[in-house]
Specification:
The chain is an alpha+beta fold. The chain contains five helices and seven strands, in the order E-H-E-E-E-E-H-E-E-H-H-H. Bound molecules: zinc ion.
């Protein structure tokens, strides 16, 4: 599977590439995932737009969608997380120009190259799209009253519950998992 692109050529010729990637290939994301489980589809498209003052501006559009498993911070069981992202980046010729573009434009800038590794970009965006504090909407494990935490549960669980509580404001951003699907995932043998 070809994942290295020459960004200048790719955008000039309005090229497109698509593929699939599994959690086992995403080494940096693996720590955030339950048993490194993720199954993603990605699509990259290059475009160029004419500048008013002459020349072109180059853009990369990245779409990533798929399902992965994370550990619920409340019950410590696995939970399904859906990823659906669609982002466009303006290509810069070096870090300096990228920093300048990032200040001026609403669109994010990335540095292009003759050997641009798409997987790095896909993994970066996938990690940033994962919930910061993954939690089931309804856990099987009942929450203990705050006063009894520490006395009744292991340090790991109480820490997770604490984190869960601290981040409960964010819980609305976590997708509601389908309990049957989660169950099916749990019953599946390791790939
Ligand atoms: Zn849970």
């Amino acid at each position: 599977m070809k994942r290295l692109i020459n960004t200048s050529e790719f955008t000039r010729s309005s090229s497109q590439l698509a593929g699939q990637v599994n959690g086992s290939e995403l080494l940096r994301a693996a720590d955030l995932l339950f048993e490194g489980r993720a199954s993603l589809e990605w699509q990259v498209a290059g475009t160029q737009k004419k500048r008013v003052e002459g020349g072109f501006e180059s853009y990369l559009n990245l779409k990533v969608s798929g399902v992965s498993q994370m550990v619920c911070l409340r019950c410590l069981n696995s939970m399904e997380v859906k990823t659906e992202l669609d982002r466009t980046f303006r290509l810069a010729k070096d870090e300096l120009q990228a920093a300048k573009l990032d200040q001026d434009e609403e669109i994010d800038a990335i540095v292009g190259s003759e050997r641009f590794e798409l997987l790095d970009l896909i993994e970066d965006e996938f990690i940033m799209a994962l919930p910061y504090s993954p939690k089931h909407e309804n856990c099987a494990l009942p929450e203990l009253p705050a006063t009894k935490i520490g006395a009744k549960v292991s340090s790991n669980a109480s820490r997770s519950q604490q984190i869960a509580r601290e981040n409960s404001v964010n819980s609305a951003t976590v997708e509601k998992p389908n309990p049957f699907r989660v169950l099916a995932q749990l019953k599946k043998p390791n790939p």
